[in-house]
Amino acid sequence: MQPRAEGQIAGRYANALLGDLGVSRSVSEQPELHPAQRWAHCGGLALTGYPAAAQMCPVPLASYADGVVRALRAVCPESPLNTLDGAQLLGERAALAGYRRAGDIAPGGSCRLLATADGWLAVNLSRPTDWELLPAWFEGAPLADWPAVATALRQRSTLPSLERGRLLGLALAPLARAPARPVPWYEARVRTAASHAQRGTAPLVVDLSALWAGPLCTQLLQMMGARVIKVESTGRPDGMRAAATGFYDLLNAGKASLALDFSQPPELGSLRKLLLQADIIIEGSRPRALRQLGIRAEDIVHENPVATWLSICGYGRDEPAAQWVAFGDDAAVAGGLSQVLWDCSRRPMFCADAIADPLAGMHAALAAWCSFMQGGGRVLSVALHDVIAYGIQFIAANDADENRARAEEWSGRITPADMAAPRPRAPLGAARALGADTHAVLATLVR
Asked: pTM above the 0.85 mark?
């Protein structure tokens, strides 16, 4: 557990991450804005609370984002990351989509904190198929809207509703405190003899992820010099492509696009051959998704002993949590952030926009790059829940009275001039069309 001192949080956080990863490099102290000011400047404060009033979060999430970027610079000092604003990455989706804070409704609108008979449950219905699962969840007739879901849930207890919903594949999370035990922000599962060899060339990254966390991870790796090939299913491409906000282009410009039909054995064979040549593989789904296609991370790393396979998921690779669906908003609730805000306000609310997504993506990039530099040979896991829980524990934010006092003190440091809306970076161009590079990739890399 780290001390509660508020000075140099970004630097201390960067060095803690590098130490966890076994990296001898460190970042030096440098002037830092107070974490409350960084949170206000990046738009986090504008996205947290109810419409009539913002709510300060006493966990220094913006400073953590700055710390991850400082750690990335330490391990790749010649990259364009020197001009990257880490905290800015937390609010880019909201900035492009025009999201606003809405208290117990996440800024994106698909996740809500709903009262149960004995507590609160975050319910994320972001996919059309989620609504189709509601009759099975409540063992009744279809429910047409959110008020009907809220009415049905108020009559049920939290734990049985949570367990049944997760078995059905719904993204749910109880409003609860972060785990009392220390939570690692990443886990390493497989190490081969090659893991001690130093790597120096630019890595080939195969990006099997979608939406936010994984694409942000691979974009950061791209900025550090990696060649990134984004792999999508022809039948189910990255859902962010359909958004008209420009967010997909922002995260994926410059990546090669490979589209494959996963129902065809020859095309799955091509994917496997590509994975056996990769230095880093980023997976953004539950582990069973690829296992059902006959692709196991452990087998790939065994056959390609210099590879790093990194899985970004909600709750890690251990059963049964590996089967639980999660997105950024509900995973942040599960990690304890909404409980911290409850401590401060006695009201249910979300913290910014799907905050676990960008934080997990940034941490994943650091873990993947460090593993590559150390020789690979690992299966790594970065869980959205664990990144949030680790951040809460880093500043010892598990005491209700201390959380409330810190939020009040931090709020007193903010002036109207500090308040800002989230803002996106300028995109580097348009992302490649689906499958635009399939022929070239198969011809040059898959033989």
From this structure: yes
* pLDDT at site 196: 47
The encoded tokens of residue 16 equal 């803690």
Whether 72 and 22 have beta carbons less than 8 Å apart is answered as: no
Widest CA span in the chain? 62
Any residues with CB less than 8 A from the CB of 52 and at least 6 apart, and which? none
Q: Which two tokens stand for residue 35?
A: 């974490």
**C-alpha–C-alpha distance, residues 432 and 383, integer Å:** 28
CA distance 4 to 182: 15
Instruction: Say if 59 falls within a structural domain.
Output: no
End-to-end CA distance of the chain: 49
Is 6 in contact with 409 (CB distance < 8 Å)? Answer: no
Compute the chain's Rg from CA coordinates.
21
Tell me whether residue 139 is in a domain: yes
Stated as kind and residue range, the H or E segment containing 11 is: helix 9-20
Residue 161 belongs to what domain range?
111-174
Q: Give the chain's residues under pLDDT 70.
A: 1-6, 193-200, 447
Residue with tokens 């219905």: 125
130-137 own/partner pairs: CB under 8 Å, 24+ apart: 130/170, 130/171, 133/168, 133/169, 133/170, 136/168, 137/161, 137/164, 137/165, 137/168, 137/170
Evaluate whether residue 441 is within a structural domain. Answer: no
**Number of domains comprising the chain:** 1
Distance CA 209, CA 232 (A): 8
Q: Provide the H-helix boundaries in 305-418.
A: 328-335, 337-345, 356-373, 384-394, 400-411
Distance between CA atoms of residues 20 and 29, nearest Å: 19
pLDDT score, position 1: 32
Is residue 385 in some structural domain? no
3-class secondary-structure state, position 240: helix
| Contact of 217 with 365, CB cutoff 8 Å | yes
Structure tokens at 225: 């010099």
Pick left, alpha or beta for residue 226 (phi over 0 → left; psi -120 to 50 → alpha; otherwise beta): beta
pLDDT digit string, tens, across residues 12-48: 999 999 999 999 888 988 889 999 999 999 999 999 9
Count CB atoms within 10 A of the CB of residue 113: 24
| Spatial CA neighbour of 372 closest among 192, 200, 191, 190 | 200
